[in-house]
Amino acid sequence: MREVAIVAFGQSVHVRDSAETSEVELLMPVLHDVLAQTGLAARDIDFTCSGSCDYLAGRAFSFTMALDGVGAWPPISESHVEMDGAWALYEAWVKILTGEADTALVYAYGKSSPGDLREVLTRQLDPYCVAPLWPDSVALAALQAQALIDAGLTDERALAGIAARSRTAAECNPHAQLRGAGPAGEPLVAPLRTGDCPPIGDGAAAVVLAAGYTARRLTARPAWIRGLDHRIEAHSLGVRDLTDSPSTRLAAQRAGAFERPLDTVELHAPFTSQEVVLRRALDLDAADATVRINPSGGALATNPVMATGLIRLGEAAARIHRGASDRALAHATSGPCLQQNLVAVLEGE
Q1: What's the angle, vertex CA 229, arms to CA 147 and CA 131, rounded to 5?
Q2: Residue 271, helix vs strand vs coil
Q3: In this structure, are residues 309 and 323 in contact, taking their beta carbons and an 8 Å threshold?
Q4: C-alpha–C-alpha distance, residues 235 and 230, integer Å
Q5: CB within 8 Å of 58: residues ≥ 6 apart
Q6: Which sign, positive or negative, has the C-alpha torsion 156, 158, 164, 169?
Q7: Rounded distance between C-alpha atoms, residue 144 and residue 338, angstroms
Q8: Are strands 202-211 and 103-111 parallel, antiparallel or unpaired?
Q9: What is the pTM of this model?
Q10: Could you read off the pLDDT of 327-336 as tens digits, one per residue?
Q11: What is d(CA 221, CA 104) in angstroms, rounded to the nearest whole number?
Q12: 134-182: per-residue pLDDT in tens?
């Protein structure tokens, strides 16, 4: 199997509202950054893949407008997924594995500020039995949190501790939207408080992938993708155990996460309660104290919907690039209550 690595990662400074900035203007500095890191020009990229959501923009095929930031002329080999950018990375990884490309540019962006995000996300629910009830994303996360508390797996104090740890870690992240631990916040949807929930914000991210010799030529320390897999839970929330995530566990097994110790873990857990579920699924509660979990601050500090998962992969890769990590796990999720889960294992030389 061909070796494939993340050789560059860039992201915007994430903000609560980028009303004065279009998607193209949000993306262009990030795309220029990752290309400059590698010394590549747009014409040197064999395949381009993006992740975004038309529902956030409120118009069909909005991703085609973002191509202005990439430069689609002369014609390029391009694809798009209506998912978090982590799944666009998966498509690009497969493209390189098959030998159809040696380099790939993957980018994602999300502008959640224009609409009511909690209401918009109801559109991803089962359209027959659940969506007509209009349960929003926070209410569903609160159901998951309460299930964990009822099962004796966490409590509100422990959840507040997760939020404080994540946002304290984000103090060292110049791109994070929320930095520094604060109070638990006001009750939002019991048992969740505002501090247990992610910020609403706008942002973009991009990575460059390359194969074998090309990767070694483009960066001094590539972040090699040693395993990558994604799985999905049953669509109906009523047939799932919300305190567990079998799909995350299976994806991690298939990606080789349990074969050797990790030193960095980037979890896509927008709610504090979801980190509890993921830690249990990945056996992180028993992990050595040297394992850093969300050293970037994670989704509790920065959550541009449709780019957050790609950022987890990028942050893990960046730690390998600068020698702060040797073996990292990156996780991405999509859908209500951790419905779809992707796990990647990254290693340095």
Answers
A1: 45
A2: coil
A3: no
A4: 15
A5: 114, 115
A6: negative
A7: 10
A8: antiparallel
A9: 0.96
A10: 999 999 999 9
A11: 18
A12: 999 999 999 999 999 999 999 999 999 999 999 999 999 999 999 987 7
